[in-house]
Amino acid sequence: MDIELITESTEDGWRPYPAWEFPQRRDMRNIIRRGCDICTFTDHEKGLTASVSFVDLGIMGIHTIIFADLRRGKIAAAESISRTSDASSGAEDSPSGDSYHTFSDSSMTMTLIKRSTGWRLLVSAPYLRLPSGEEGFKADVTLTSTPDAPCSASVSRLASCKGIAYSACSLPLRSSGTLFMGDTISSMSEGSLGGVRWLRTRGTLSGRASAAMIYGWDGVIPWGITLSEALPVQNAAIYGERAMKLGNVSFSNENGIWKITEERGRLLLTLPCPSMHQTKGGRKFLSGEATEIYGLWDGFLILDDGMKVMISGAAGSLAIAEGKS
């Protein structure tokens, strides 16, 4: 299923490479532009994962660092709000172009740099209390791809506000670097993976929005899955050098076990022991509630050729936001 992406209209579409820019549409100049850049990486061997997000709401920025110890099932998180848009950070209107994001205050410093087919993430949260009891987290991580590697790029209509959303998700990305956890220094294990999600929208987002990024290995072949319940045109799987479109998905919680299913039966994922980080609204410019869930997923994925890939202990995150932003 390969839907041609149309960048100068509001038609939904998908393609396995981000060869487009966020259009400056004349009829949308007065609608608030929003953006979100998320970088996540996991050392599967050591059971450590981290996620850094730059959220630009047009009138304010929200910056988050999350560190998860998957073996302990615990999360540490730091969040900071800036009163100005993140637009001055150097973010580009294309997921394929070079760019950088940076933010710093007394509690954290985070920088995400994209050059060619790689990303470098620099993070420092000196007062973050980790699940191990240690204080302070720093990371210098590089996530790399190849010029021919597919990704999942899409454009989606936001019917509720006559807006539009552009998204690109690059995964699985080979990850390497060094983590500093209190007095502990850890080099990332061979086989570590990560992903980067790029999102630009015009219009107000309301209601429930949920999205997931999950990645792992099938023998020597890396794979990744990107999913959205509200914007199904984004749903896709990447297996080695192949990108495949997936259909509508649903997220459910049954007796504490999270479950993701695809409408045609091509995907089933379960998360039996989740670790959660939750933030509640009430700020001047943000209402509602957001929950980020991390853990090791089990299940299966059926490829376009009918091959069934069994999934066991794959790292992934699920984000659920309800309300208005």
Can you tell me the CATH superfamily? AttH-like domain
Estimate the global geometry from the Cα principal axes.
globular
Order of helices and strands: EEEEEEEEEEEEEEEEEEEEEEE
Largest sheet: 13 strands, antiparallel
Structural class: mainly beta
**Count of spatially separate domains:** 1
Q: According to CATH, what is the topology?
A: AttH-like fold
CATH class: Mainly Beta
CATH architecture classification name: Beta Barrel
Mean pLDDT: 84
Span between N and C termini?
Answer: 32 Å
Q: Unreliable segments (pLDDT under 50, ≥5 consecutive)?
A: 1-10, 24-30, 86-90, 281-285
How many β strands by DSSP? 23
Rg, Å, rounded: 18 Å
Helix content: under 10%
Q: Work out the helix count.
A: 0
Strand content: over 45%
What tags apply to this protein structure?
AttH-like fold; globular; disordered N terminus; 0% helix; 10-stranded antiparallel beta sheet; mainly beta
Question: Could you explain how this protein is built, in words?
Answer:
The protein has a single domain (32-324), classed as AttH-like fold (Beta Barrel). The two termini are 32 Å apart. The chain is globular, with a radius of gyration of 18 Å. Strands 1, 2, 3, 4, 5, 6, 7, 8, 9, 10, 11, 12 and 13 form a 13-stranded antiparallel sheet that branches. With 325 residues, the chain is mainly beta. It has strands at 13-15, 33-43, 48-56, 61-69, 74-82, 99-104, 109-115, 118-129, 135-144, 152-158, 163-181, 184-187, 193-202, 206-218, 221-228, 236-239, 242-245, 249-254, 257-262, 267-271, 275-280, 287-302, 308-324.
